[in-house]
UniProtKB/TrEMBL annotation:
It comes from Hymenobacter coccineus. NCBIfam families: cit_synth_I, PRK05614.1. The lineage of its organism: Bacteria, Pseudomonadati, Bacteroidota, Cytophagia, Cytophagales. This is Citrate synthase. Belongs to the citrate synthase family. GO terms for molecular function: citrate synthase activity. Pathway: Carbohydrate metabolism; tricarboxylic acid cycle; isocitrate from oxaloacetate: step 1/2.
Length: 430
């Protein structure tokens, strides 16, 4: 007999069907609850709400497991390239060599952006945050490719939009940085791989020959893979919700970029470095800040510790910690004062009873900030890097939603405002 739960309300029994995923996660299906009882469920922040059935990413926060399409994150981070992972997330299986070559070739054919995008970029003040620029330019792609807004795209048209976005995002991201520092835009090079090309567009100048450092490319490749998807996080849920209204891929991803920009989501890695710099400027005494973090009357918070869904450790942090050590060693930066502060905080969090009891271990944002800093990526670009990494996940989730013809997202609420009252003329108001 199919499993179900029984809800007793005013002596009446309501049966709630149980649905089970392939990894045996279970949910009560409350889809008909309001029709049956007049009640809705209340779950602010949707922390305990399964908003969709998804076949993309499996995450077990208690066990510290993360898999894309069934493949453990540890294997992908060690063995795959970012583009392979993008293909996997979007298409459901790892590409054969022929499929991969075709995918890579298509992407190189779309890495340039329309020259008019330069004019839009020129319109932004140099003080503009690159995340704002990124979100705006991605949304403006609907203007350059008007067909993309149609909800009736065939498979080839949809694929073209996907390829365009993967191809152009690094160009737009690097140019948003060049714009913010007033440097000339650097055009993509198709002979470089995806990650190396991004670094080239970020850091090269027309006046000098730029050598791409393989250690940096490899660390960045890993970071992008680790960020590529994370099931129904805030920005991904945003992409799905916007996409559920049949909004275009570019419009939906632009909304996701804005969600990611929030300091509680993708902005956290920037806040980690800002915190480390503040500690350094204060004299570098980490024990003082550890005590401040423990003091409940002090507003200071340790950034980059603990995680909403990982209750023991963030599997991405384990991988990235090793990569951080390697990259700092390779770049001869193991003695940097900022790193020393980071290591002392990390040590305290892993050994101090206060942090251990509260499971406040360093998360992926803690180490990614350190690596980005070591790679010479400017602080305000950290969240942009996260967006470049998260793009395949957003695309895969948007595509899945469309293919499954999911209904428009429309949560309910519990109204707690004024009861009905009559309008009074302005002169009669107290
Ligand atoms: C993410 O990768 O999106 C973040 O860790 C946040 C989350 O999953 O809630």
């Amino acid at each position: 007999m199919a499993e179900s739960a029984e809800l007793i309300l005013d002596g009446k029994s309501i049966s709630l069907p149980v649905i089970e995923g392939t990894e045996h996660e279970k949910a009560f299906d409350i889809g008909k609850l309001r029709d049956q009882t007049g009640y809705v469920t209340y779950d602010p922040g949707y922390k305990n709400t399964g908003a969709t059935k998804s076949a993309i990413t499996f995450l077990d926060g208690e066990e510290g497991i993360l898999r894309y399409r069934g493949y453990p994150i540890e294997q992908l981070a060690e063995k795959a390239s970012f583009l392979e992972v993008a293909y996997l997330l979007i298409n459901g299986s790892l590409p054969t060599q022929t499929e991969f070559d075709a995918f890579r070739y298509e992407i190189t054919q779309h890495s340039l952006v329309h020259e008019d995008i330069r004019k839009i970029l020129d319109g932004f003040p140099s003080s503009a945050h690159p995340m704002g620029i990124l979100a705006s330019i991605v949304c403006s792609l609907t203007a350059f490719y008007p067909k993309s807004i149609s909800p009736e795209l065939n498979k080839d048209e949809l694929n073209l939009n996907i390829v365009r976005l993967i191809a152009k995002l690094p160009t737009i991201a690097a140019w948003s940085y060049k714009n913010s520092v007033g440097h000339p835009y650097v055009y993509p090079r198709n002979d470089l791989d995806y990650t190396a090309n991004f670094l080239y567009m970020m850091f090269s100048f027309p006046t000098e020959k730029y050598e791409v450092n393989p250690v940096v490319v490899s660390a960045l490749n890993k970071l992008l893979i680790l960020h590529a998807d994370h099931e129904q996080n805030c920005s991904t849920s945003t992409v799905r919700l916007v996409g559920s209204a049949n909004a275009s891929l570019y419009g939906s991803v632009s909304a996701g970029i804005n969600a990611l920009w929030g300091p509680l989501h993708g902005g956290a890695n920037q806040e980690v470095i800002e915190m480390l710099e503040a500690i350094e400027q204060d004299g570098g005494d980490t024990s003082k800040f550890i005590n401040k973090a423990k003091d409940k009357n002090d507003s200071f918070r340790l950034m980059g510790f603990g995680h909403r869904v990982y209750k023991n450790f963030d599997p991405r942090a384990k991988i990235i910690k090793v990569a951080a050590d390697e990259v700092l060693q390779a770049l001869g930066m193991q003695d940097s004062p900022l790193l020393k502060i980071a290591q002392e905080l990390e040590q305290a969090a892993l050994t101090d009873q206060y942090f251990v009891e509260r499971k406040l271990y360093p998360n992926v944002d803690f180490y990614s900030g350190i690596i980005y800093k070591a790679l010479g990526i400017p602080t305000e670009m950290f969240t942009v890097m996260f967006a470049v990494g998260r793009l395949p996940g957003w695309i895969a989730q948007w595509k899945e939603l469309r293919e499954n013809k999911e209904p428009i997202g429309r949560p309910r609420q519990i109204y707690v405002g004024e009861l009905e009252r009559d309008y009074t003329a302005i002169g009669e108001r107290a």
